[in-house]
Amino acid sequence: MTVTDGAVSGGRGDARVRGSVLVAADKFKGSLTAVEVAERVTAGIRRAVPDARIEAVPVADGGDGTVAAAVAGGFERREVAATGPLGEPLTAAFALRDGTAVVEMAEASGLQHLPPGVFAPLTATTYGTGEVLRAALDAGARDIVLGVGGSATTDGGAGMLAALGARFLDARGEPVGPGGGGLAALASADLTGLDPRLAATEIVLASDVDNPLTGPKGAAAVYGPQKGATPADVAALDAALSRYAEVLEAGIGSRAAAAALAPGAGAAGGIGYGALVGLGAVFRSGIEVMLDVLGFDRALARAGLVVTGEGSLDEQTLHGKAPVGVAAAARARGVDVVAVCGRLALDPAALRGAGILRAYPLTALEPDPARCMAEAGPLLERAAQALAADFLR
């Protein structure tokens, strides 16, 4: 691995770049939004090449930051009163343009809405996400991208469906409690009251997660601990989600069982399952969906070099994260791709395999992680300046 002024090489730069530079990076989580990343990269490139033609398309893979990326791409931001994961009132946003809405479940049901150090693995609800979806329908949306990720919840999307008119009842005919824990008492499910507009709406489940609903690779086992679930909580949640799927199968037939095993069912605490079985959603890679929505292909047609990236380029990046999706699209068009990142945990061979010629990690400029995050903006400008010197002069 070769490091030069913050650059880790996965290939050689081509100084004969023609066309504009397209900046299409995701957020640096905890430091910079995708929009801020684009601004800093643009500023750094202009230091080295003042007359460079630069176009920015901030991207997201369906997780937190997806609405912001859509707004940056020309969608209108709409705000709505919603219910947070703990049942508290909050204001969430979705993005709307020409009848297409981008809904980000983290806006209403994300971990960022929990107080510091507080988790609610058994009771956190996706009810607010259902309220945002209903608001999108009220605003005239007939195509909805539901981006999932960064959730505080493991309720299989039951809260979301309840907000849209479904009923989940215990043996006494009373609504079950909120969250995945409440599903342990589920005796019957009725989806007939779901908002009828959903039947005429195309809904895409946008996620980089292809886990099933339950089992060792399911929503509770894999992601529950990140939401504060103890081993006992994980076992309880997995059993409750299994009960949920069984009751739905009894009510609507075998498609409920098939949906529980489908890729994406386990996304964001199982909200993927709720979207597949209750909303008739179609699962697609989050970054592929967002690139389509944001008009990335049109911008790519004008580009001679693409700059992508995210906070950490690592093994997870290779499994459907934004930089790999951007690189795949660019490679199909024969456009070179380089990356910026906070930290780099991929070797040059892995970078080349992902279609990235070279990566510029901020930790090569400032090895102290705390300072690197605190000073991410100025460091990113320096990395982008080095990138421009390597590829644009």
From TrEMBL:
<dbReference type="InterPro" id="IPR018193">
    <property type="entry name" value="Glyc_kinase_flavodox-like_fold"/>
</dbReference>
<dbReference type="InterPro" id="IPR004381">
    <property type="entry name" value="Glycerate_kinase"/>
</dbReference>
<comment type="similarity">
    <text>Belongs to the glycerate kinase type-1 family.</text>
</comment>
<dbReference type="Pfam" id="PF02595">
    <property type="entry name" value="Gly_kinase"/>
</dbReference>
<dbReference type="InterPro" id="IPR018197">
    <property type="entry name" value="Glycerate_kinase_RE-like"/>
</dbReference>
<dbReference type="GO" id="GO:0031388">
    <property type="term" value="P:organic acid phosphorylation"/>
</dbReference>
<protein>
    <submittedName>
        <fullName>Glycerate kinase</fullName>
    </submittedName>
</protein>
<keyword id="KW-0418">Kinase</keyword>
<dbReference type="InterPro" id="IPR036129">
    <property type="entry name" value="Glycerate_kinase_sf"/>
</dbReference>
<dbReference type="GO" id="GO:0008887">
    <property type="term" value="F:glycerate kinase activity"/>
</dbReference>
<keyword id="KW-0808">Transferase</keyword>
